[in-house]
Design brief:
The complex is a heterodimer. Chain A is an all-beta fold. Chain A contains no helices and 9 strands. In chain A, the strands form 2 sheets. A 5-stranded mixed sheet of chain A has the order 1-9-8-3-4, with no helix packed on it. In chain A, strands 2-7-6-5 form a 4-stranded antiparallel sheet, with no helix packed on it. In chain A, a hairpin with a 5-residue loop joins β6 and β7. The model of chain A has no long low-confidence stretch (mean pLDDT 92). By secondary structure, chain B is mostly beta strands. Chain B is built from no helices and 11 strands. In chain B, strands 2, 4, 5, 6, 9, 10 and 11 form a 7-stranded mixed sheet that branches. In chain B, a hairpin with an 8-residue loop joins β9 and β10. Chain B is globular. Chain B starts with a strand and ends with a strand. In chain B, 35% of the residues are buried. Classes of the chains: A mainly beta, B mainly beta. At the A-B interface, β3, β4 and β8 of A face β4, β5, β9 and β10 of B.
């Protein structure tokens, strides 16, 4: 499975933007980039996904590098409720529900 | 609209026993997958069920088996429990199809003593 590399942890101040990086240098042309997050004592929650173009939704934005070897999840104004582990995942064509999670980035948000 | 529900929330079993975990998918979803999450690790894919059949399987032994019912709900069975099976077991549902996001339940915490 194609792998992703993320920092173990990051910190942010509340109401500041947060940029969570992810490297995926072995990505293939048909792999989608997915982001999930897991709040304490909860199951993972879908955040956003994209293939080549930058994507926006109500939760976040996803910026994908032109060569697709890296991407950045952008939380525009972090709140305390955004404190979670964020997982960057490559969803491989044909593997449907099989998501390969790494250890993710633990985001701490402080006042 | 109810999301993915799992039962029980917590369970304690003894080594060698068998356990059954249950999952009801989000309304309208037809595909269920199961994940195991050890403490401090990301979830690991166990298997996926669609149309009452196992469609994909991760690197888990045959002690792990499952079932999907006509109403799309699912069970995960683990036989001959080992101490290493202690983990959070997550169920996820989705619509069949590659681009459909997964919706996860909050899991069943299994402790094997």
């Amino acid at each position: 499975d194609a792998k992703t590399t993320q920092p173990n942890s990051m910190e942010s101040n509340e109401e500041e933007p947060v940029h969570l990086p992810c490297n995926h240098s072995t990505i293939s042309g048909t792999d989608y980039i997915h982001w999930y997050r897991q709040l304490p004592s909860q199951g993972p929650e879908y955040v956003i996904h994209g293939l080549t173009s930058n994507v926006n939704n109500r939760m976040a934005s996803l910026a994908i590098a032109e060569d697709r070897k890296s991407s950045t999840l952008i939380l525009h104004r972090a709140t305390l409720r955004d404190a979670a582990v964020y997982y960057c995942i490559l969803r491989v064509t044909g593997t449907a529900s099989k998501l390969t999670f790494g250890t993710g980035t633990r985001l701490q948000v402080t006042l | 609209d109810a999301g993915v529900t799992q039962s029980p929330t917590h369970l304690i079993k003894t080594r060698g026993q068998q356990v059954t975990l249950r999952c009801s998918p989000k309304s309208g979803h037809d595909t269920v997958s199961w994940y195991q999450q050890a403490l401090g690790q990301g979830p690991q894919f166990i298997f996926q069920y669609y149309e009452e059949e196992e469609r994909q399987r991760g690197n888990f032994p045959d002690r792990f088996s499952g079932h999907q019912f006509p109403n799309y709900s699912s069970e995960l069975n683990v036989n001959a429990l080992l101490l290493g099976d202690s983990a959070l077991y997550l169920c996820a549902s989705s619509l069949e199809g590659f681009s459909s996001p997964l919706h996860f339940g909050n899991g069943t915490r299994l402790t094997v003593t």
